[in-house]
Write a structure and sequence with these properties.
The chain is of the alpha/beta class and 231 residues long. It has nine helices and six strands. It has two domains: 148 residues, Rossmann fold, CATH 3.40.50; 52 residues. It binds magnesium ion (MG). The site of magnesium ion has 6 residues, from loops.
Length: 231
Amino acid sequence: MSWLNPTLGMARLQPKTSPTDLPEFIDPKHLAFDIDGVVADTMKVFVDLARERYGLRHLTKEHLTCYDLRRCVAAPPHVIDELICLTLDDEHTAKIPAMEGAADVLERLAQKGPLRFVTARVWPESIERWLHGLLPQIDPGSIIVIATGDPERKHAILHSMQVRHFVEDRLETCHLLARNGIQPILFDQPWNREPTPFPRVSTWYELAEILQLGRTPASTSAAIMHRSSEG
Ligand SMILES: [Mg+2]
């Protein structure tokens, strides 16, 4: 099941996408971000709740090796469902830690234009408040959050926003975006470590390098070539 929308089935997409390369320059006005698993370390809260409330004391984030948590967490399905609902409720969303470096890089990007986020959450309000708390220096009017309620609706929304590059942690969504003409940049997480044709970044500092934030174009081109060749 999808942990962003518990009512949504896990549609397994066939990886038909061809390898894709990043252009030498990514214009921030054509860039947008997923939130959970990219900006927000959401599964840290899932793991903490699993350990504290359900006694799954062995569990770490590294055990979450698939997006469908029922397949990789040794707990009954109703427990997984309850944990997902708790993790995403308003109270716990407010407590989600940010991925290291995310605020710094987003603040630098905000100097170039509005920040756009597209999430598969059903409701945007709590994660929008979370972003405003993470980025207090940025005018809330320059932080745009769209909640699609369904990862398979992201590409249509992104096209309407003229987004060409999207940072995402769900591999199935990356394949879907690529098939619809949007370049995914995969944000590395334990649940997406299969071989992929997409550029992969492990940290926000690596992403900053690709986006040429504070680096010379020459070093950035080398970084892009390295990333693309890794597959
Ligand atoms: Mg995500």
